[in-house]
Design brief:
- By secondary structure, the protein is α+β, with helices and mostly antiparallel strands.
- 21% of the residues lie in helices and 38% in strands.
- The chain starts with 7 loop residues before the first strand and ends with a strand.
């Protein structure tokens, strides 16, 4: 998965939450996001395919996190939990 190609990430807003759809290679991965509290701006959860090796999960989440930040919240940073499919935007 080349880092220079984030694929197509579509983010919808429905009040304080919404959906995230990621099209990359031959895959479509869906999930949701919601605004968070404390020092976190938002939480994103993606339903990653079972069977993906840890390095692929990490790389995919990083691509999506980078694109979410680029589109919606420049200057923020992301923390990843690839095992659970979570992105925390801070």
């Amino acid at each position: 998965m080349p880092r220079s190609d984030p694929g197509r990430v579509t983010i919808t807003e429905e009040g304080r939450s919404g959906s995230v759809t990621c099209h990359l290679e031959d895959r479509t991965v869906t999930g949701w996001w919601e605004f968070a509290g404390g020092d976190a701006l938002a939480l994103v959860h993606l339903d990653l395919p079972t069977g993906w090796p840890p390095d692929r999960r990490d790389a995919f989440l990083r691509l999506v996190a980078d694109e979410v930040i680029r589109q919606k919240c420049p200057g923020h940073r992301a923390e990843l939990d690839a095992g659970g499919g979570w992105i925390t935007i801070r």
